[in-house]
Amino acid sequence: RKEVEQDPGPFNVPEGATVAFNCTYSNSASQSFFWYRQDCRKEPKLLMSVYSSGNEDGRFTAQLNRASQYISLLIRDSKLSDSATYLCVVNRNTGGFKTIFGAGTRLFVKA
Amino acid sequence: NAGVTQTPKFRVLKTGQSMTLLCAQDMNHEYMYWYRQDPGMGLRLIHYSVGEGTTAKGEVPDGYNVSRLKKQNFLLGLESAAPSQTSVYFCASSVTGGLMLTGNTIYFGEGSWLTVV
User: Fold this and answer.
1) B47 CB contacts (<8 Å, ≥6 apart)?
2) Is the Cβ–Cβ distance between B48 and B33 less than 8 Å?
3) pLDDT tens digits for range B4-30
4) How far apart are CA A101 and CA B40, in angstroms?
5) Is the dihedral of CA B57, B60, B61, B67 positive or negative?
6) Who contacts A53 (Cβ-Cβ below 8 Å, separation ≥6)?
7) How far is CA A45 from CA A48, A54, A83, B68, B77, in A?
């Protein structure tokens, strides 16, 4: 079983839709959590960190559930430009840091 | 505003050939990394460096070697390329180790597409 798991999708949604992605992690020692965005044939870029109390950045909302060991990303009012792969990233510091990337969830937003 | 620069961007190798991927960063970061990305696998760490003159193995180091002779450069070498090394390779750097909520972000280069035939 992978340490960080994501539904690969693809998610196909119309413009203006709300879409949510979940990501589960298996190591309870995981300490910090992030969402990265990766456009087709491009490098990953940090989208947002995920705080314990949940956090929002414009149309994007991230949530963390430590008890169930998952994080989520909600995108409201989807735009064509949101089409990308969203990577769940987990960091832990047990015997040295370790950053684990999920395989990503693909999102296609259609006109 | 270069950030992390990788060369070459595309390369086709024959099995058994050797090559070196070059990575340079201009952000004065201590930590540098080499990842590979394969479909359905996510980014996997090959080797990393915590400072000039240091290197360490990551998750999938076999078949690769690295060197960090200068702080700004991190080289990834394939001594005898195999088809299993066909992948997209990303170099990355950060101020300190790993991602942190305090703002330590990992910055990636644009990627190098390598095909071994």
Assistant:
1) B33, B34, B55, B56, B57, B58, B61, B64, B65, B66, B76
2) yes
3) 999 999 999 999 999 999 999 999 999
4) 11
5) negative
6) none
7) 9, 20, 14, 24, 25
User: Strand pairing of A44-50 and A32-38?
Assistant: antiparallel
Scan for tokens 């390369």, then name that residue: B11
Q: Does A42 touch chain B (CB under 8 A)?
A: yes
Structure-block tokens of residue A62: 């991230």
Q: Does A52 touch chain B (CB under 8 A)?
A: no
How many residues make up chain A in this entry?
111
How far is the C-alpha of B21 from the C-alpha of B6, rounded, in Å?
A: 7
CA distance to partner chain A, nearest, from residue B96 (Å): 10
- Signed CA dihedral, A57, A60, A64, A65: sign only: positive
Locate tokens 């950060």: which residue?
B94
Instruction: Indicate if the pLDDT at residue A1 is higher than 80.
Output: no
* Mutation choice for A interface testing from B45, B87, B100, B104 by most A CBs within 10 A: B100
Residue A101's nearest CA partner among B84, B37, B91 is B37
Q: How far is CA B29 from CA A82, A100, B39, B46, B56, in A?
A: 30, 20, 29, 18, 16
| HSE, side-chain direction, 13 A CA sphere, residue B33 | 28
Q: Nearest CA of chain B to the CA of A45: how many Å?
A: 7
What are the pLDDT digits (tens) for B75-104?
Answer: 999 999 999 999 999 999 998 776 665 567
| Tally of CB atoms within 10 A around A94 | 10
